[in-house]
Write a structure and sequence with these properties.
- This protein is an alpha/beta fold.
- The protein has two domains: about 50 residues, DNA polymerase, domain 1 (Orthogonal Bundle); about 280 residues, Aldolase class I (TIM Barrel, Alpha-Beta Barrel).
- Helices cover about 35% and strands about 20% of the residues.
- The strands form two sheets. Strands 1-2-3-4-7-8-9-10-11-12 form a ten-stranded mixed β-sheet, sandwiched between helices. The protein has a two-stranded antiparallel ribbon with strand order 5-6.
- Helix 1 packs across helix 2, helix 4 crosses helix 5 and helix 6 packs parallel to helix 9.
Length: about 350
C-alpha cells in the first residue's frame, strides 16, 4: 500500500483504523492533493503524522529540470521511489499550461519512430505516481497571474502505452478529475494510444469525455505495420471503426497523430489515402515533423514540407494542423532525454 494510491474513501478507512476523528480524513486528503509528505501536514497531530509516515509514500520527485531557451518549455526527469526515471514536459500556451506525463517506465509497443520503446516496458506506473507528477510541477512553478493553478491541461503522451496500463490509468483519470481533488476537467485531458482496440471500446464507460488521440502515422496496413507492430493485431479495418464509435459515443472529435517520415508517408498520394480513410468522421489530424531517433535511422521532414502536406489535406476537406515544435533544444520528444541521461 502507498499513500499516494489511496482515494478519499480509502483514506477515511485508514484514518478510522488509527482511531482518529472523521474530519482528519479530509485534512489528509487535502494535503496529499498538494503533494505533501506526512511530516509536512502541519495541522495533523504528531501521532497521526508518525503513523502515516510508516506507510510508503509511493510518489515521484523532480530529479532534473531542463528549460528550453527557445520557448520556455520545461522537461522534467522524475525519479520514482524504486530508482526508475521517467519524463514529463510542461508546455505553455495562451490558454494555459499543458503537462505531458508518462504512464509506463519505457514502452513495449515497439513503434519504429519512438525512443521510449528501445528498452521495452520496465513496469506500469501507478495512479498515485502519475498524480505526483502534477503535484511536483505545481509545487515547483509559480501560479500564473489570473489563474488558480499551474497545470490546466494534461496529456498522457509521454513514455508508455496508456491503454496497456488500463486499470491504473482509469484510476488516475477518475482521481485527477475529482471535484474534491485536483479537479482538472476531463475535457482538458488527452490520452494517446497506438490503437488497442478493445480498450478504446471500453474507455467511454470508464473515463467519459477524455479526448482520444490515436497514433496513426500511416494510411495503409502495409506501411503502418512496418513502423507499428500493434497494427498486425488491430489493423485499420478494426481501428478506424472503433475510433468512429468513440467519437459518436462521447460527442468528441478524435485526434489522429501523424508523424511525417521523409520518403515514407509524406507524399501527395499518402495524403489522399489518409483523407479517404478518415472521410465522414469527426476528427482532426495533428501533423508532426518527426523528431529523428538516431537508433531508428528514420528521417524527419522540414516544416515547409509539413505545411505542404497540411495544405493537401485541407484541399481534401480534412481538418489538419502542423504541431508547433516545442522544446527541441532540450530533447522534447518522449524517451530521448531519459535514455541519454541513463546511458
Amino acid at each position: 500500500m502507498y499513500l499516494t494510491e489511496l482515494d478519499k474513501n480509502e483514506i477515511s478507512e485508514l484514518v478510522k483504523s488509527f482511531n482518529e476523528p472523521v474530519f482528519r480524513a479530509k485534512q489528509v486528503t487535502e494535503w496529499l492533493n498538494r503533494g505533501a509528505r506526512p511530516q509536512e501536514m502541519s495541522n495533523l497531530p504528531k501521532q497521526l503524522r508518525a503513523s502515516l509516515s510508516k506507510i510508503p509514500y509511493g510518489g515521484a520527485s523532480i530529479w532534473q529540470t531542463y528549460v528550453s531557451k527557445l520557448d520556455g518549455t520545461k522537461k522534467y526527469l522524475f525519479r520514482l521511489e524504486d530508482g526508475n526515471v521517467v519524463e514529463g514536459v510542461l508546455m505553455r500556451y495562451r490558454y494555459g499550461n499543458t503537462l505531458c506525463i508518462s504512464t509506463q517506465v519505457g514502452c513495449g509497443m515497439g513503434c519504429a519512430f519512438c525512443a521510449s520503446t528501445l528498452e521495452g516496458c520496465v513496469r506500469d506506473l501507478l495512479s498515485g505516481e502519475m498524480l505526483s507528477f502534477i503535484y511536483e510541477v505545481e509545487k515547483s512553478e509559480p501560479i500564473p497571474e489570473g489563474s488558480g493553478r499551474v497545470v490546466t491541461n494534461v496529456v498522457l503522451m509521454g513514455s508508455g502505452e496508456p491503454l496497456a496500463n488500463y486499470d491504473n490509468v482509469v484510476r488516475f483519470l477518475k482521481r485527477v478529475t475529482d471535484a474534491e481533488g485536483i479537479n482538472i476537467s476531463p475535457r482538458n485531458i488527452s490520452l494517446s494510444t497506438c490503437g488497442l482496440v478493445p480498450r478504446i471500446e471500453t474507455l467511454p464507460d470508464d473515463a467519459p469525455h477524455v479526448t482520444l488521440s490515436l497514433s496513426l502515422h500511416a494510411a495503409s496496413n502495409e506501411k503502418r505495420s512496418k513502423i507499428m507492430p500493434i497494427n498486425k493485431a488491430y489493423p485499420l479495418e478494426l481501428l478506424i471503426p472503433a475510433a468512429k464509435r468513440y467519437s459518436e459515443r462521447t460527442g468528441r472529435r478524435v485526434i489522429f497523430e501523424y508523424a511525417l517520415i521523409g520518403g515514407f508517408n509524406d507524399s501527395r498520394e499518402d495524403a489522399k489515402q489518409l483523407s479517404e480513410l478518415l472521410r465522414n468522421m469527426r476528427c482532426h489530424v495533428n501533423l508532426i515533423p518527426l523528431n529523428p531517433v538516431a537508433e531508428r535511422n528514420l528521417a524527419g521532414v522540414s516544416r515547409k514540407k509539413a505545411e505542404e502536406f497540411c495544405e493537401w489535406l485541407d484541399s481534401l476537406h480534412i481538418s489538419a494542423t502542423v504541431r508547433r515544435e516545442m522544446g527541441s533544444d532540450i530533447e522534447g520528444a518522449c524517451g530521448q532525454l531519459r535514455r541519454r541521461v541513463l546511458e
